[in-house]
Amino acid sequence: MPSPRPSSPRIDLHTHSTASDGTDSPAELVAAAEAAGVDVLAITDHDTTGGWDAATAALPAGMRLVRGAEFSCVSPTGRTIDGRDERPVSIHLLGYLFDPAHEAIVAEQQRLRDERVNRLRRITEKMAADGYPVDVETVFSLVEDGASAGRPHLARALVAAGVVDSVNQAFAELLHNGSPYYVPKSDTPVEKAIAMVRAAGGVAVFAHSLARRRGRVVEPSVIADLATKGLAGVEVDHPDHAPEDRELLRGLAADLDLVVTGSSDYHGTNKTTPIAAETTAPEALEDLVSRAAGVEVLAG
Ligand code: AMP
Ligand code: FE
Ligand code: FE
Ligand code: ZN
Hints:
By secondary structure, the chain is of the alpha/beta class. It folds into two domains: 11-111 and 185-299, Metal-dependent hydrolases (TIM Barrel), CATH 3.20.20; 115-175, DNA polymerase, domain 1 (Orthogonal Bundle), CATH 1.10.150.650. The protein has helices at residues 26-35, 52-57, 103-129, 136-141, 151-160, 167-175, 190-199, 220-227, 243-256, 282-290; strands spanning 11-12, 40-46, 64-74, 90-96, 188-189, 203-206, 233-237, 259-262, 298-299. Strands 1, 2, 3, 4, 5, 6, 7, 8 and 9 form a nine-stranded mixed beta sheet that branches. α5 (151-160) packs across α6. Bound molecules: adenosine monophosphate (AMP), fe (iii) ion (2 copies) and zinc ion (ZN). Residues 70, 92, 207-208 line the site of one fe (iii) ion.
């Protein structure tokens, strides 16, 4: 017998599978969600819709699936948190319910996955040249066929080689954005990604916009600007958001008529956050769905 579901639906709108840098297969991800009493799950792998079909096939009766992806983007240039630093900021954009066959999205996601392979290879080679016991073949043996490669795959190779004790430690000491081994990838201008998601019938939500521990973040005026360019929502309740930043974002969302979401950003054992650690209100999901015209929310 499945465990009884709580009366208010549990909605987690941001999770990863082995189609990108999570450790659960799409079917295992759905099973983990069911075990956690999740009623509505979004699968949002980095730069791919490759996990959609397997997640759909695994959907149990009573659970709903929001099909999505997390797009690797950059901010408009010249606008960052202190108003002075003009280097673009890395932005993750969650796209939901878009047509996965939309030509521009298919092409851009393929380009980004190729970028990911090249840059992960270069980071690995830089570390190997410095004497770390990692090699390209071992790292890529950890990436599923056709999946989006990412630094967490290298982090796991570093754990397996005994260099660090955990994926977290690998990021803290060696793989963070300020590391000498860091190699950037050429991400999509965020306005372009929003336009693509909308053209494909989907809705776009700014993921963990104030996750300061990951690096530089945008200033609120950038979010206001994106709201005029079709952004539908902001992820407010996210494990990497400080309480004061959640309040700031909630206020901003109210002012700008943006949908407020909450999600775990679950990555299986690559992160410590359990699935459904943060959730989205049912009215917020309804609002998002009402703004979308692409694919349906699937019911199991
Ligand atoms: P990449 O996609 O190669 O740029 O790597 C970024 C990914 O690494 C993010 O999507 C997270 O899944 C993961 N990540 C970032 N920081 C950490 C951390 N401190 N611990 C574990 N995973 C992290
Ligand atoms: Fe990730
Ligand atoms: Fe992200
Ligand atoms: Zn994510």
